[in-house]
Every structure is written in structure tokens, then in C-alpha cells.
Design goal:
Blueprint (H helix, E strand, L loop, with lengths): L1 H8 L2 H23 L5 H76 L2 H59 L5
Helix pairs in contact: 3-4
Length: 181
């Protein structure tokens, strides 16, 4: 009875699968028997090569991480300088407009002083002097802003050059890495 149930389980297909598996296992065992055993010296050389590759990869990874960090810091610096430069340029435009308005006011006050009588002339001259002082203050502010703009433009140029240098170094690290298969 047990034989009858076993024979039902072992169909022709199952027998062929078992036979194929035995052939494959036999081939693998034969291939392993034919392969020469690695000597201890060969294994040591292989382990040393693997260690060298791991050390090289770790060094490249650390360098890349440092360069990425520097690149991010330089990017933040560029953003801050750009923000400051835009702010200075906006203020410079505002001061230039104020200077133009002050020049127009000065011209009209000078004309008023020239055309005024002696009684009103004193008051108009005080107003003219106050306007001149205001215009001089605007001029000083405008000059200071132009100097600041020049400093920021130079900082931006330097920061962009550093960014490009770091980016080039990062690309060199990337190119030095072995290609992945």
C-alpha cells in the first residue's frame, strides 16, 4: 500500500527532475574537484588587495564628503553676498533718486535766493544751506554705498571662484573613482 502511494507521487516528470538534479550536482562536484586549491600566499595577496581598495574607497568618500560640505558652505556664502549686494544696489538706487530730488530742490532754492529781496533772503539762504548739507549727506551715503557695492562684488567674484575650484576638485575625486560594472 505504501508502495502504491509512492509510485503515484513519482510521476515521470518527477523522475526526470530528480535525474537532472543529480547530473547537475555531479557536475558541480566534479568542477570543484578539478579546481586547484588556493594557496595561503594567494589568499593573503587577495586580502591585501581588498584592503587597499577599501582604504582607497574610504579615503575618496571622506574627501568627497569634505568637498561637498565646503561646496555647500561656499554656496551659502554666495547666497548671502548676493542678498547683501542686491540690498545695497536697491538702497543705492533709492539714494540716487533722493540725490536727484535734492539737486532739483537746490537749484530751485538757489534761483529763489537770487531773485529774493534782502528781507526774505536770509531765511532762503538758511534753507539753501540746510539743503546743501542734506545733499552732501546724501552724496556721502551714495559714495559709501558704492564702496560697499564694490567690496561685495569682489567678495562675490572670489566666492564664485572658490566654488568653481571646489567643484572642480569634487569632479576630480569623482573621476578618480573606479567605474562601476
Amino acid at each position: 500500500m505504501l508502495n502504491a502511494s509512492i509510485s503515484k507521487l513519482l510521476t515521470t516528470r518527477t523522475v526526470w527532475m530528480l535525474a537532472l538534479g543529480a547530473v547537475v550536482l555531479g557536475g558541480v562536484a566534479f568542477g570543484q574537484a578539478q579546481r586547484p586549491e588556493a594557496t595561503l600566499d594567494e589568499l593573503v595577496v587577495e586580502v591585501q588587495a581588498m584592503r587597499a581598495e577599501i582604504n582607497q574607497a574610504a579615503t575618496a568618500s571622506i574627501r568627497a564628503q569634505l568637498l561637498v560640505g565646503r561646496l555647500q558652505m561656499e554656496d551659502q556664502r554666495i547666497t548671502a553676498v548676493l542678498r547683501d549686494l542686491e540690498s545695497v544696489q536697491a538702497e543705492l538706487a533709492s539714494v540716487a533718486q533722493a540725490r536727484a530730488e535734492a539737486a532739483t530742490r537746490l537749484k530751485s532754492l538757489e534761483e529763489a535766493v537770487l531773485g529774493s529781496t534782502n528781507d526774505a533772503r536770509g531765511e532762503e539762504e538758511r534753507e539753501l544751506n540746510a539743503s546743501r548739507a542734506g545733499a552732501q549727506q546724501i552724496d556721502r551715503r551714495q559714495q559709501a554705498l558704492k564702496r560697499r557695492e564694490n567690496v561685495l562684488a569682489k567678495e562675490l567674484q572670489d566666492a564664485q571662484a572658490r566654488w568653481q575650484d571646489i567643484n572642480a576638485r569634487l569632479e576630480n575625486v569623482e573621476q578618480s573613482l573606479p567605474a562601476r560594472p
